[in-house]
Amino acid sequence: xxxxxxxxxxxxxxVVLALTKxxxxxxxxxxxxxxxxxxxxxxxIERFTYRLCGVDPAQGQxxxxxxxxxxxxxxxxxxxTYGIERLQHVLPxxxxxxxxxxxxxxxxxxxxxxxxxxxxxxVPETTVSYLTQMAGLAWHNFTSAAAGIxxxxxxxxxxxxxxxxxxxxxxxxxxxxxxRSTIYVLLPISFFYALFLVSQGVxxxxxxxxxxxxxxxxxxxxAMGPVASQEAIKMLGTNGGGFFNANSAHPFENPTPxxxxxxxxxxxxxxxxxxxxxxxxxxxxRQGWALWAAMAVLCIAGVVTLYWAEAHDxxxxxxxxxxxxxxxxxxxxxxxxxLSASALFATVTTDASCGAVNAMxxxxxxxxxxxxxxxxxxxxxxxxxxxxxMYGMLIFVVLTVFIAGLMVGRTPEYLGKxxxxxxxxxxxxxxxxxxxxxxxxxxxxxxxxxxVSSLNNAGPHGLSEILYAFSSGAGNNGSxxxxxxxxTPFYNLALAADMLVGRFLMMIPAIAxxxxxxxxxxxxAGPGTFPTNGSLFxxxxxxxxxxxxxxxxxxxxxxxxxxxxxxxxxxxxx
Length: 574
Description:
Layout (H helix, E strand, L loop, with lengths): L2 H30 L6 H15 L9 H25 L15 H12 L9 H4 L2 H31 L13 H27 L9 E4 L5 E4 L4 H10 L20 H25 L3 H27 L26 H14 L14 H12 L10 H21 L4 E2 L2 E2 L2 H27 L1 H4 L6 H16 L14 H29 L17 H35 L5
Helix pairs in contact: 1-9, 1-11, 2-7, 3-4, 3-6, 3-17, 4-17, 6-7, 6-8, 6-13, 6-17, 7-8, 9-10, 9-11, 10-11, 10-12, 10-18, 11-12, 12-16, 12-18, 13-14, 13-18, 14-16, 14-17, 16-17, 16-18
């Protein structure tokens, strides 16, 4: 653990904090302002899109209509992407003449990118064509991120809007939120972001792969492709995945320390800014900063723990006389990034459900690997995916307010609105779906031959690999622990179901809660009102997030990375 390593970590949080207010203010103007930015440019594109799609932007939607619009749009996206993958061998922009993607893998990939998971059970540069990358996968990088922002806005409106003639009827318009997220936020930032990546050395072309001869006289094939355009939205939209199999460890995808730093910042940029947007919507900026503080506390704790774990020698290698340790655990890491940047990247990407990696989590120490796994299992609420982190954290806010109300014997209220039985049922449905998916699928995979036959490791590390896969799928993260061959019929179909249910059956309760809360009358704060914008509430919120995650997943984590840590210290390696 070095001074320069700590400087990188501090600088990262300082830059994220500096971006929070200006980007948050911009998004508030886009979604809630009376006049959107650059109306002569973006406004014309927006209005043309509405006319093309037959959308009336002035018409609001009730929560069932909003949810149906989201599901219908996403279902169509799965079908289109599946069709492109299955037909890519006869479609243009396939200079490598790659074959059609087999059905189970194509369905897994279509479900993965539709749900903002971007789980990849294949080698991208040898499996999917340029057209599939651009028209199928990169398209979903935009639309799935926009859908997440839309749901975050919906629950924010439900909690912050005051009752009125139309409040009980509408919570916004899905098509408006989707279009504005894409046109005003994701597209313009991604355009300039992609140009920056090209300046750093990231590829952007449609050339066939090149065969070169190295200085040693060995022939090597170098993959080409439109990398920068997909890399930009992959990070900004917290999609994850990679144009290359090595992901953000590949020099054509993440070539310099500066590109690595900017990629990490871009992962947190929109999720962090949404907390400021929420504060404006609540007409109390401290409400937004309270959410930001809770997320930052959990994130910093993860970074410190992971950096500490990886800065120590690997306990599995103790006792080997021929091996001299002392520089930390560098297995599976890019030396051009080092331990601190690898630990920070791993924490950020699993906090934000991004899934991009610049180091292999499977090679971390047992306690180091525990951090990314736990980050996902906490519900991806530590800044979280674009939009998903906000609506997930607001669900935990409702739970926290309810618990606080029980402790003082008062009817719980949040922003002056009473939290009643319906809201608690929806919140518990949201919270229980997540562990049910992960633990059920993991248990299934562990007791059947076709589940364990793909493992490269036995014992607790093998358990961690399977547990991580289904946690990543349900949390729509997309990163992999590696060591598990997930490109089998069982894992392709099981993980596809895991991702779809983890995305949409958790979005629906959040949207329903917005519909339940939006028409409630606001009660003025009184002497007994529990404040939700101070340090006491931040501490309670962090505790609830940790307790829910710890109580649910602690037994499984104890049998995985925790057992592996103590076993490695005792000289037993799995």
